[in-house]
Amino acid sequence: MYAFDIERPETIAEAVAALGGEAQALGGGQTLIPTLKARLASPDKLVSLSSISEMQGIRLEGRDLWIGGATVHADVANDGTYAALSDLAAHIGDPAVRNRGTIGGSIANNDPAACYPAAALGSGATIVTNTREIAADDFFQGMFDTALNEEEIITAVKFPIPEVANYQKFVQPASRFALVGVFVAKYADGVRVAVTGASNEGVHRWSAAEDALSSNFSAGALDGLSVPSGNMIADLHGSPDYRAHLVKVMTGRAVAQAS
Amino acid sequence: MTNVTMTINGKAVSGEVEGNTLLSSFLRDDQRLTGTHIGCDTSQCGACLVHVNGRAVKSCTMFAAEADGAEVATIEGQANADGSLNVIQQAFQDHHGLQCGFCTPGMVMTTAALLKDNPKPTEAEVRAYLEGNICRCTGYHNIVKAIMAASGQDVSAIAAE
Amino acid sequence: MPKDSGIGAATLRREDVRFLTGKGQYSDDINLFGQVAAVFARSTVANGKINSIDTTTAAAMPGVLAIFTGEDFAEVGGNPAGWLINSRDGTPMHEPKRPVLAHGKVRHVGDAYAAVIAETAEQAQNAVEAIEADIEELPAVVNMKDALSGSNFVHDEIGTNQCFDWGWIEDNRAATDAAIKGAHHVTTLELVNNRLVPNAMEPRCSMAQYNSATDEYVLHTTSQNPHLTRLLISAFVLGIPENKLTVIAPDVGGGFGSKIYHYGEEALVLAAAKKLGRPVKWTANRTEAFLTDAHGRDHVTKIELALDAEGNFLAFRTETMANVGAYLSNFSTATPTFLHGTLMAGNYTVPNVYVNVKAVFTNTAPVDAYRGAGRPEATYSLERVIDKAARELGMDPIALRRKNFVKPDQYPFASAAGLEYDSGNYDALMDKMEEVADLAGFAARRKESEAKGLLRGFGVNAYIEACGIAPSNLVGVLGSRVGLYDAATVRVNATGNLSVMVGAHSHGQGHETAFPQVVAEMLGIDASVIDIVHGDTSKIPFGMGTYGSRSLAVCGSAVVRATEKIINKAKKIAAHMLEASDADIELKEGVFSVAGTDRSVSFGEVALKAYIPHDFPLEDIEPGLEETAFYDPANFTYPSGAYCCEVELDPETGKVRVDRFAAVDDFGNVINPMIVTGQVHGGLGQGIGQALLENTTYDENGQLLSASYMDYTMPRADDLPFYAVDHSQGNPCTHNPLGVKGCGEAGAIGSPPTIVNAVIDAMQSGGKNVTHIDMPVTPHRVWSAMQNV
């Protein structure tokens, strides 16, 4: 690693004040620290968000589940209020990673194979920052790209709790990230389907499936659909055709298991 | 350089660290607790696993500064007070759950975390919980068996010596 | 004899206590006063001409003490290949120099061209980044076919990328060709034996010290064979006299072949320690391990099996391209030849075998022996083509194998590939496997899988390997430049406890527990008073190390021989003490007695006497009780086995899960069944990993795409099942004193074809006529194969 300082502010305001210049926010560090070890980033200062109590915790706010941005995956996994979300969190990384990695860090990074972006987009969540609230549909803007500005921190994510939902992850065998992950959530006003791992666009919605499932919430409703492979990722672990195929298979399984 | 203070295996320690000092480096280089091992750069092998405030953490993927004020437990503090192997360690020896020993500290610490949350895990639960601990020697058979034995379950039906 | 610590006892491992409590001492755990750090500058291109290396800026950076480049080692020797292979036309193989640091050219991504020594590793890394290296990228040679046909050479001075073109056995060639030509049926299969990265969990680490007053060096290093490392450094690379160089391999966190070899980093830290007068340590990170540890396998093979109308095997003919990478690693030329070609008759009475192996240089990391080393490649080719033949002929795959097995009354059996098998019973192994695996229940289990929408496949395999390498006289004829014996010293201390210095190194194999069991059994004393000393060239007479499943068969035999000498001398001492004749002394349960009398002395009394020889007849008996033996085996040992497995395949995703695995092995006699079972488990994990998960992928520019655990799939606990392991069908080795055959590699040899055969069977059961699929059998490959038929 290159040399840098580390600060541990206790309030959002202090954290924002500490950012700026070449400073970088540090969530759980489960992605950032390996990146720093490889010398692929050279911040002069890291601002750790893990001591900020107002960014911690999980609570119901009306019909939304509010999750503090610095809440670790293990806590979401153990919560259970939004079962599909807890189940998703319970399968991110491994137990030790889940004890450090945070929801805010994952969503801010928007890794194209990460799980949380699929849940946020699939649930139509609201990303809360120190300055504003951003709808998930506007937040995710392609691989590793989001609507966040410099020095903007995700302080919480608000998930509307659906009638039923499920996340199906087909893992990339080495990294155990999603080779293809599909989050399906059924709300009173329709079904949302978000796909991660598969596309060069990063996390995205599969609108044809949403339409079909909104009128008939069963795996059979997908029968006539096909997933275009044109923009799917090609790598060591799967071709575009294979990923496109898996999107449909995983979507069907998510619908069948939604609860 | 900043000063950090933490409790390691019940003993208060403090030291000067750089911003980029990993907890694993603090343990190995400053505290000479070399039972915590480094096997990869990407937070996947689990040889460096310790407990921070009771939770399993990869010490190579956490800064020492972030552990300021924390309770840290490492492999060196796991044996019984009289120095004998604890239940988990003894189960690993009894069931030949280690060979070269390099991943072993991480395996023991992971097991301790698992059994705290899930005192009687099934085989599938054990295997799933070991996702972040790679062993190249054992093919995992005897590790899984040892963990189930450590949880007090009868493993006599699981094949072989 | 205490039954809990002698031969055959499942004694718990004594070494476990230090590993379980964090008190192991691996190389990187050792820190010395004044120690500094080495970091290497490594090529980012696969092939490049070094125009210049400017270290001026780097040398002025904080903490930097010295910088080395290839120029600094231009006058010293290279790291040699241990075996000379001659081509079919009689010409010797090509042996380009493998320098300590790349000089003139870099030849693979990760090839080190400079090293910085600084007060801290971070400072050294900073300086590495400040080295201005003008390296002109050249087109890379990656694919073996292209390498053989093209005019772009990894080593310009050779003018070819073919290291050798080897035939085995050349005199069998015409008969093999004729048998194939005239056969009733010929099954042909082209396959890839996928390249693997060994991935011992402990990355390599080397630390050197130098004492200018005595001109002595000490090297702590992650080695499976410290004496061999010392020999290579002394005789070939740096010319440090062996008596001035101590090599210590302390606790080593796995090897699997990758730590057999001498690497340039070891020479670099020695040279740096001398230059600076301070201890110099280098510790690899995992990326460096991926880029520079010797890789394994990487064969592309065409195999043909000729059969008559009854299914009798008439001939195997094999053409293989074996990748040796950019430089010849120490065993790299033996692995695809004598550890591969000689096994190509398998467990079978086939009369004709011919093997052709072309070794190919490419701009990739060196390839060398990895768990099994040549024998997994042989077994995979044989057992895949046999399975394909059975399917083509409509024969049961077990019946076809049994029909062609060497039978128990045929030993010693001269195989058509030139080996003499000493003992075995392959039908008995198959019988036991059928029982252990509950073959009868397969049909019902298949139905259950199908009810879940899954396909279930059954795969079977028989293997034989040649272990315990090996007789020096034979390997010398075959081109080995070293002898393959091993050594042990048994020292009985005055107070009756023992130190046993052994040449084999233990890095997971449990020698510290198993070797004392042998000595305890022979002396009739408790194993707890016997300690093993290994891994330090200053303490041990000599050793050729641990690889090729040889530790117990070769070094263990040396321990037996040395202990026999101890017993002989102890009897003399006892005879003197008891005023009897040597010939009348019996040793039983640790007590020497005069036959037919009640006069006796204990082992401990004899030991004490040996060191307090007040009344010794010194012309007959020297004081002391310490004996050394070197043991050179008469033949290889031949472990064999029958393996089978069942897999479940999800046809929607292509995902394969191993549901059941049974491994039945003939290891001859077993010293510690717990350790032997563990060795099989580990081999199975690696073999199943090769079959389903692991692959090393370079792109066309020679960039390693699978360079971390993010892309190289290590087997994890949830990828693998519990295994049913049995070694009750042992036929003792006939030529070593313990009757042992070796168990370390078996699992990795027998399991890959078992898995692939099962996957083919699963796809066939789903109506998909897939006849072959290459490893690793990933979900993507399975799905694609099923789409394409």
Structural write-up:
- The complex is a heterotrimer of chains A (259), B (161) and C (789).
- With 259 residues, chain A is an alpha+beta fold.
- Chain A is built from ten helices and twelve strands.
- In chain A, 30% of the residues lie in helices and 24% in strands.
- In chain A, the strands form three sheets. Chain A has a five-stranded antiparallel β-sheet with strand order 4-5-8-6-7.
- In chain A, helix 3 runs antiparallel to helix 4 (83-89).
- Chain B folds into two domains: 2-77, Roll (Ubiquitin-like (UB roll)), CATH 3.10.20.30; 87-150, DNA polymerase, domain 1 (Orthogonal Bundle), CATH 1.10.150.120.
- Chain B has helices at 23-30, 87-94, 104-117, 123-129, 141-150; strands at 2-8, 11-17, 49-52, 55-58, 71-73.
- A five-stranded mixed β-sheet of chain B has the order 2-1-5-3-4, with helices on both faces.
- By secondary structure, chain C is an alpha+beta fold.
- Chain C is 28% helix and 22% strand.
- In chain C, the strands form seven sheets. Chain C has a seven-stranded mixed β-sheet with strand order 3-5-1-12-9-10-11, with helices on both faces. Chain C has a five-stranded mixed β-sheet with strand order 7-15-14-13-8, sandwiched between helices. In chain C, strands 18-26-27-28 form a four-stranded mixed β-sheet, sandwiched between helices.
- Classes of the chains: A alpha+beta (259), B alpha+beta (161), C alpha+beta (789).
- Chains in contact: A-B, A-C, B-C.
